């Protein structure tokens, strides 16, 4: 359970949520760039004709997973508003609970006890809601992580195909490099976010 | 901490939160007032975060929480309404009376339970059980939207920052010698009150009232002839010093 009396920790956790959401932007940007790259690669492959025959299915694949990543990231962005709301609710419930513990030091009465208990329940409910929202978020990030594993595999495959593309080899090589680089950036952001989610869920247990 | 009685009548009483201990801490810097009747209660200027739990404890010693039906906020300063979101959690069905001018700011407190009743510039009334309270305009004293609360039965005027003394000794509840008190209020009123015109309007309005106690947000209260002395002094004071 979150250390309710520690306002600093409560705010730190809110900042963690904000950081997770901020990372979404870089994931989305890279995913959109991947999608554009797939379209460019398709044009290059068409111009290369038979020399880049093996590249065509690869561009379709890049297109497919970049669209999936954009869809996952968009779903997460939709969730993020909800996540902020729940995280804010937890901050407020925690602050209120802290005040109720102070109230008990000022006043020994049944009503003060009842208010303390109610505040504790609200705080636990809010923590549970945040935990659920984080769990949903974790699933989406795991999906993106799988998509990036595919991207890394495609980057290797496309590099091999690029070497057979004659005059278009350099262009297709740069496509492969970009896929590898974007996948790495996205994976780094996702790994960071999953680690933050893991920490947050640990605190909320 | 406890609520000390300022007035007790047949229908209701006025109370003020009294803090024991250090006179220099932030707790003792803000006066908080509470009107209590058998059926309903009202809390004025709910205060800063540090005052929430002591004030709540003091209120619970006098009434059940569901009888605290009304909050009144004279203006928007942090020492006046920083606890709104906490009171919002504590009391389920209360109404907050505050200047309608602050409507868009009140929204930032993200209140779930409190019903906001914006008071128009002309002022208005609060009916608290059988008690009728007048909401008096005090705009620009110091806030652009500012109200005071007058109780014609108790003859008490809660005057928010008008009459306030900051960091003044609190050895007695009421001003005993106004000439000695002036040094604690002069700079505050010159600097915080922006408009001589607003001041004159307010004085004209307040002089028509029958006032036994003038109860400001900070420092000692004024009683009896000290009220008139303060009004006469304030009338002559040139305010808005930072713009001169």
Automatic annotation (TrEMBL), chain A:
Keyword Coiled coil: yes
Top-rank taxon: Bacteria
Coiled coil: 120-154
Keywords tagged on the record: Coiled coil
Protein name: Chemotaxis protein
Organism: Pseudoalteromonas luteoviolacea H33
Automatic annotation (TrEMBL), chain B:
Pfam family, one: ODP
Organism annotation: Pseudoalteromonas luteoviolacea H33
Residues of the Metallo-beta-lactamase domain: 29-218
Protein name: Metallo-beta-lactamase domain-containing protein
Matching InterPro entries: Metallo-B-lactamas, ODP_dom, RibonucZ/Hydroxyglut_hydro
């Amino acid at each position: 359970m979150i250390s309710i009396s520690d306002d600093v920790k409560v705010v730190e956790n809110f900042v963690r949520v904000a950081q997770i959401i901020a990372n979404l932007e870089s994931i989305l940007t890279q995913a959109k760039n991947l999608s554009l790259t797939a379209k460019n690669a398709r044009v290059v492959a068409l111009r290369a004709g038979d020399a880049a025959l093996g590249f065509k299915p690869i561009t379709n694949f890049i297109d497919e997973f970049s669209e999936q990543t954009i869809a996952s990231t968009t779903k997460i962005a939709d969730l993020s508003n909800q996540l902020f709301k729940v995280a804010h609710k937890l901050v407020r419930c925690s602050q209120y609970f802290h005040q109720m513990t102070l109230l008990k030091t000022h006043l020994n009465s049944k009503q003060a006890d009842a208010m303390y208990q109610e505040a504790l329940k609200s705080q636990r409910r809010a923590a549970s809601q945040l935990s659920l929202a984080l769990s949903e978020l974790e699933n989406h990030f795991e999906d993106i992580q799988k998509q990036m594993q595919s991207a890394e595999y495609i980057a290797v495959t496309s590099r091999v195909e690029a070497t057979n593309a004659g005059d278009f080899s350099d262009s297709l090589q740069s496509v492969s490099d970009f896929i590898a680089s974007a996948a790495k950036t996205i994976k780094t952001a996702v790994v960071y976010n999953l680690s933050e989610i893991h920490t947050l869920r640990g605190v909320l247990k | 901490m406890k609520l000390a009685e300022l007035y007790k009548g047949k229908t209701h009483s006025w109370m003020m939160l009294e803090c024991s201990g250090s006179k220099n801490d932030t707790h003792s810097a803000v006066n908080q007032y509470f009107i209590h009747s058998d059926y309903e209660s009202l809390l004025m200027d709910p205060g800063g975060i540090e005052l929430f739990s002591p004030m709540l404890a003091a209120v619970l010693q006098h009434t059940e929480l569901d009888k605290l039906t009304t909050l009144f906020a004279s203006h928007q300063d942090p020492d006046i309404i920083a606890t709104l979101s906490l009171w919002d959690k504590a009391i389920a069905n209360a109404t907050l009376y505050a200047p309608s001018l602050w409507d868009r700011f009140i929204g930032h407190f993200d209140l779930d339970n409190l019903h906001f009743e914006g008071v128009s510039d002309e002022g208005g009334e609060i009916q608290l059980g059988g008690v009728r309270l007048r909401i008096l305009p005090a705009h620009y004293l110091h806030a652009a939207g500012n109200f005071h609360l007058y109780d014609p039965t108790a003859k008490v005027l809660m005057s928010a920052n008008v009459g306030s003394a900051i960091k003044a000794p609190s050895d007695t509840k009421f001003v005993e010698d106004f000439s000695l008190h002036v040094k604690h209020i002069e700079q505050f009123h010159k600097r915080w009150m922006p408009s001589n015109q607003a001041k004159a309007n307010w004085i004209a309005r307040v002089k028509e009232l029958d006032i036994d106690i003038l109860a400001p947000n900070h420092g000692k209260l004024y009683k009896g002839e000290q009220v008139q002395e303060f009004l006469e002094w304030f009338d002559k004071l040139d305010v808005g010093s930072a713009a001169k």
